[in-house]
Amino acid sequence: FSTYIIDKNLxxxxxxxxxxxxxxxxxxxxxxxxLAKKLGVKTSFSKLPLEVVINALKLYGNDEKNASNSQEFxxxxxxxxxxxxxxxxxxxxxxxxxxxxxxxxxxxxxxxxAIEAENVYxxxxxxxxQKILDNYWFINLPKRIGENKICNFxxxxxxxxxxxxxxxxxxxxxxxxTELFRYINxxxxxLLCYRLQSLRKNESKRNE
Length: 208
Description:
Elements: E1 4-5, E2 17-18, H1 26-38, H2 50-60, H3 70-83, H4 85-88, E3 100-104, E4 112-116, E5 120-122, H5 130-135, E6 137-139, H6 147-154, E7 157-158, H7 159-162, H8 175-207
Parallel strand pairs: 1-2, 5-6, 5-7
Antiparallel strand pairs: 3-4, 3-6
């Protein structure tokens, strides 16, 4: 019964049978849960065996119908690994061979596809250049949830490591920059006058 779970708040997990205990009598529910636990049924997602969760990841990426809910599923998986981090150890990382992750190339709003883990990236940076977004697949997970942990938990690569040796071959200023600089320079005499007036007022107040 290690692949059975009593938790109605979960998204459907491939390879895991979710038991729904639906009864208004709390005493009956308690007895049913106690019996289920004795049989080895898990009462929360975080208590599932590691091999069951990894198998769920493998199965999930093989069904294109899962693409639309993939972020919620991956967030659920991330919470599982966080809850079991002490048990797994700080140096633990998943063997992502054979796992596909629903990912995007091109940024938000683009189509999601199942991509082999070895070709998938993650970044905590919300402001990546469009050129990078267009050339790499990013796992369908939100930003700012800990890129090093995501790297270990999901076996994906960090974009910062992939682009660290990237060299800028051409640096081109936007044509509007010239207009902006000209406008700022035209304001300098007025800003100087305003500053001088402020200094004079402050000096007058001190002399009073």
